[in-house]
Amino acid sequence: RPAWHGLIHAYGDFLPVSDRTPIVTLYEGNTPLIPVPRIAERVGRNVSVYVKYDGLNPTGSFKDRGMTMAISKAKEAGAEAVICASTGNTSAAAAAYARRAGLRAYVLVPEGYVAQGKLAQALLYGAEVIAIEGNFDQALDIVRVMADTYPITLVNSVNPYRLEGQKTAAFEVVDSLGNAPDWLCIPMGNAGNITAYWMGFCQYREQNRCDRLPRMMGFQAAGSAPLVNGAVVVHPETVATAIRIGNPANWQRAIAVKEASQGAFNAVTDAEILTAYCLLASEEGIFCEPASAASVAGLLKLADQVPSGATVVCVLTGNGLKDPDTALQQESDRFHRHIDPSEATVAKVMGF
Ligand code: F0G
């Protein structure tokens, strides 16, 4: 097998790049598709369930797939600075790739609603971090105006190169399974990723690399579910801050994907998200961030609708290390603190 040098190197034939494109890469992509038999057992019906663990990308989320393309193309076009609005992961990826390319990076985030790890990354990678006293939707409105007004490239998922890069995750799923799955379960925020996956599956289908297309099953947090409710959510709320979005930029495209794939959009509550988040960690050894667990929470919720014997892929979009605060809040009662440093006390705590 050839060495992995990033997804543009691997899938360049399917991407809008040329010999003149300066490839900015951190060797993203090639993430594992991992079976999760305990989750499959809970679903029942002899289903096979896998997770696409995109939290293993260089900055810890699927955003790296889009950012290697967006920043390479920005560099090719002679840009000197990029900007994005973000619930955290996009800002980390934009900062890393922009700085690697020698570009300035400006990121607007909703103050108080970005997981600690993501903020730490954006700052350390060298972005100008601007926390606004507003939410993601307001930040996106502002950066769109900035990019229209000043010489600065927008790298949110409305930048077409972002989705081009992200579609490679679907290629990898098909390359691993030998075909497309029956169901693809995915969390939705701005709905760029579900759009990108569908582009990837369709492109591979056209090339006869798979002989079917999945049903695209999108999940939103119940307090931030505009695509499920069919209406903008003015004050989105959820523990899954990555998908705390009330007015998705890719709204129309997501609806088109749902219809073309005979998929469905559903909401999962914060309690359901946190249950799936803890199950993945404690029963499968897989630590994802809360927003990512929405895909598994959704599958468990719709278990009785999965065709028997089906193959299901749940996308785990981000690494659990991004959000240590939420993790620690879940298991605080099992954290034995202030223990006397003696064998007798430790044995007692252990239950002997
Ligand atoms: N999961 C994670 C971990 C995310 O960070 C995001 C989006 C999504 C799922 C949803 O993906 O927007 O393509 O539907 N995060 C963006 C950000 C909004 O700014 O990092 P989507």
Automatic annotation (TrEMBL):
MF (Gene Ontology): L-serine ammonia-lyase activity; pyridoxal phosphate binding; threonine deaminase activity; threonine synthase activity
Keyword Amino-acid biosynthesis carried by entry: yes
EC number(s) from the headed UniProt entry: 4.2.3.1
Reported cofactor(s): pyridoxal 5'-phosphate
InterPro entries: Rhodanese-like_dom (IPR001763), Ser/Thr_Dehydratase (IPR050147), Ser/Thr_deHydtase_PyrdxlP-BS (IPR000634), Thr_synthase-like (IPR004450), Thr_Synthase_bac/arc (IPR026260), TrpB-like_PALP (IPR001926), TrpB-like_PALP_sf (IPR036052)
Source organism per UniProt: Parathermosynechococcus lividus PCC 6715
Pathway in which the depicted protein is active: Amino-acid biosynthesis; L-threonine biosynthesis; L-threonine from L-aspartate: step 5/5
Protein name: Threonine synthase
Rhodanese domain ranges (all copies): 82-122
Keywords, sorted A to Z: Amino-acid biosynthesis, Lyase, Pyridoxal phosphate, Threonine biosynthesis
Enzyme class: lyase
Protein family membership: Belongs to the threonine synthase family.
N6-(pyridoxal phosphate)lysine sites (modified residues): K63
Catalytic activity annotation: O-phospho-L-homoserine + H2O = L-threonine + phosphate
Recorded superkingdom: Bacteria
Chain sites annotated for binding pyridoxal 5'-phosphate: N89, G189, N190, A191, G192, N193, T317
Role of this protein: Catalyzes the gamma-elimination of phosphate from L-phosphohomoserine and the beta-addition of water to produce L-threonine.
GO BP annotations, alphabetical order: isoleucine biosynthetic process; L-serine catabolic process; L-threonine catabolic process; threonine biosynthetic process
